[in-house]
Amino acid sequence: MIPVSQPFLPPKDEYDFLITELWNTKWLTNNGPFVQRLEVELRRHLLLPSLHYVSNGTIALQLALKSLGLTKEIITTPFSFVATTTSILWEQCRPVFVDIDPQTLCIDSTKIEAAITEETEAILATHVFGIPCDVEKIEEVATKYGLKIIYDAAHAFGVQYKGRSLLSYGDIAILSFHATKLFHTIEGGAVVNNCGQELEQSLKLLRSFGFTGEEHILVGINGKNSEFHAAMGLCNLKYIEEIILKRKRLSKAYDDLLLNRFARPHIPEDVIYNYSYYPLIFETEEELLSTQCLLRKNGIESRRYFYPSLNELPYLQERHDCPISEKISKRILCLPLFSDLKLEEVDRIATLILEKEMARAL
């Protein structure tokens, strides 16, 4: 079976070396030395002044919303992982969906202004598959109306736009370090604060129950992560450039075989990309489903990422029409992509898809 994703694992002896240190110190959690070291190394690698390591990407989203004091309407995208929307609902805010750009699949920046009301407090947009949103236009609109900007950058580890880390845009950006991600700590995530020192202390408190020592300051949660998870991150970070290079080669191999036959999301110019996923856009949902079935019969997994369009979630109280997202979500499929995937496996996957396409055309 070829999985759609598979985590990179460092040499076991490198991880064992750090775990032995944990056994000796018995400092397993509560902002230990590995967590502190990982935060420093991630800030250095990603060219960021601030990064708070947390337990997962969903907690990162909730901390972002809470730290900015958001309680009302938040304009967001319908094309993302479900946590982007459920975090808004969890924090008792109201999601207002704006349709997506059909090329990048990110929120359509030209439609945001029309969705703003007196209750709007923020924009929460996703850099879909690591592809940058129209950050300049979003900042222009947010500045005009006094709105906060949060970017769900779960897929955007290492991506640069116009010479800057993509994570440096917006008031806050969040990352996911889940095992399926390009860079992982088994489970984990991060909050990137671009608002300056005023928010730093608040994020630290919110992550750790809202108290320091014996002084209880605000309502917090347990968003900390363990030394075991941080140790995995420290090991993996050494290999990240090699991982991205492998994924780039695999993506190019897919492109050489499939790009003339299928639509793909557009990556704007001035982007240093991370090759986090390989999505194809089919002409119809029926074509997607039959292709997925064919791949599965041949021991190859794929994923409908993202499906359904989030504006169609059954537990939403309000309906927002997002026809582009609704159509794309039914026709997009991610093919296997991970660092240990072999070029001959890419060739096999692509050949199966192409042969099916040619048979359908006859």
UniProtKB/TrEMBL annotation:
<dbReference type="Pfam" id="PF01041">
    <property type="entry name" value="DegT_DnrJ_EryC1"/>
</dbReference>
<protein>
    <submittedName>
        <fullName>dTDP-4-amino-4,6-dideoxygalactose transaminase</fullName>
    </submittedName>
</protein>
<keyword id="KW-0663">Pyridoxal phosphate</keyword>
<comment type="similarity">
    <text>Belongs to the DegT/DnrJ/EryC1 family.</text>
</comment>
<dbReference type="InterPro" id="IPR000653">
    <property type="entry name" value="DegT/StrS_aminotransferase"/>
</dbReference>
<dbReference type="InterPro" id="IPR015421">
    <property type="entry name" value="PyrdxlP-dep_Trfase_major"/>
</dbReference>
<dbReference type="InterPro" id="IPR015424">
    <property type="entry name" value="PyrdxlP-dep_Trfase"/>
</dbReference>
